[in-house]
Design brief:
By secondary structure, this protein is an alpha/beta fold. It has a single domain, classed as 3-Layer(aba) Sandwich (Rossmann fold). The protein is built from eight helices and seven strands, in the order ααβαβαββαβαβααβ. It has a seven-stranded mixed sheet, with helices on both faces.
């Protein structure tokens, strides 16, 4: 598993054309998530990125005024993410920790988030992972891919849910759902035509109702 993820992360950065190009792509795609974070947590707040991967989004969040810590279990991924933080001259910190045991961080953050992490496990385990994040912060943001992620790459062990199903798991983890939405445009002619001809509000409602986007975000609070 860890070898696979190291290769996946390194290939993603390499194929994008390097850290800067990858960072620009990631920031554009994940910008709705940054907007959500900025709306619920004041600048200077502490953020925990669980399963930080390349660490670039963690680095960029820190550049926007947050006290950000990224964690990953694999020491080689941690090393790679630290290199990326240094490359971007970011004040973010990268540390080694398992998503299953965040006891060193319990009660220490304003918000914890995970991007494309919890869907790699069975539903029961996914709920446990969300609960562990909730022990670290009053606010927990979970982002997972939709079934349309197949347009971006091969689907392997991901469990693919609808927005309502992710909301239900967050609720079962003991959190109150504060916000949920779909983000990212599906790269199809249908999506382009819907966006072109429908009023923005109607298009957004349709995307959320049918989970018709590339990713799902659910924000919960204790």
């Amino acid at each position: 598993m860890t070898t696979r993820w190291r290769q996946y992360i390194e290939k993603g950065v390499r194929d994008a054309g390097g850290p800067v190009a990858f960072g620009l792509q990631q920031w554009a795609f994940l910008f709705p998530i940054y907007v959500t974070i900025s709306q619920v947590l004041a600048k200077g707040g502490r953020i925990l990125d669980v399963g930080c991967g390349a660490g670039i989004f963690t680095a960029l969040i820190a550049h926007h005024g947050y006290d950000a810590v990224g964690v990953d279990e694999d020491p080689d991924i941690v090393s790679f993410a630290q290199d990326m933080v240094n490359y971007f001259r970011s004040p973010a910190r990268i540390e080694q920790a398992s998503a299953f045991d965040l006891s060193a961080y319990h009660g220490s953050f304003g918000l914890a988030y995970s991007l494309g992490v919890v869907e790699h496990f069975d539903r029961k385990v996914t709920i446990q992972l969300i609960q562990e994040q909730a022990r670290c912060a009053n606010l927990v943001l979970v982002a997972v891919p939709t079934r349309y992620t197949r347009y971006a790459g091969e689907v392997t062990d991901e469990r693919l849910y609808t927005r309502r199903q992710v909301e239900q798991m967050v609720s079962e983890a003991g959190l109150s759902v504060r916000r949920s939405y779909v983000y990212g445009e599906v790269p199809t002619a249908l999506a382009k035509n819907l966006e072109r001809f429908l009023p923005r509000a109607a298009y957004t409602r349709l995307k959320n109702a049918f989970s018709y986007g590339m990713g799902i975000v659910v924000l919960g609070s204790r």
